[in-house]
């Protein structure tokens, strides 16, 4: 793996911290010692977000690595089918799956793909589900109702 492809995986890191006793504390101490030995300022730890509670007080909210917000209720499997000659250069997608709101439109998905793949604005992007060419105005929830379970993939 190239170093440019390495990135932090918070979910995996949280799992490892829960499995290996005192690992998180040891790593924090090593980082603190590293910066102190070199006379550098020790970076501040990330502060949890605060959210108002029902009684008007604020409480600390720590994101659970396994909880998915209810508004992100659709998972999309993104597969590149092909391009016409002369389409130009584009970046392959880093991730095959993406979770989005059912209220997202095909236009939103197209915009996401254009940005992630660095596509030229003149490049035509067609998005299909099963045998259906989808329209920009259609929401993902509408598509699920219209095409039914036949065009949906079950990932279990």
Automatic annotation (TrEMBL):
Keyword Protease belongs to the record: no
Q: Does the keyword Protein biosynthesis apply?
A: no
The UniProt keywords, alphabetically, are: Nucleus, Repressor, Transcription, Transcription regulation
Matching entries from InterPro entries are given as: PcG_RING_finger, PCGF6_RAWUL, RAWUL
Q: Where is the signal peptide?
A: none
Q: What CDD domains does its record include?
A: RAWUL_PCGF6
Using the record's annotation, list all stretches that form the RAWUL domain.
96-143
One protein family per Pfam: RAWUL
GO CC terms: nucleus; protein-containing complex
Localization annotation: Nucleus
Q: Gene3D superfamilies given for it?
A: Phosphatidylinositol 3-kinase Catalytic Subunit, Chain A, domain 1 (3.10.20.90)
Primary location recorded for the protein, binned into one broad class: nucleus
Q: What is this protein called?
A: Polycomb group RING finger protein 6
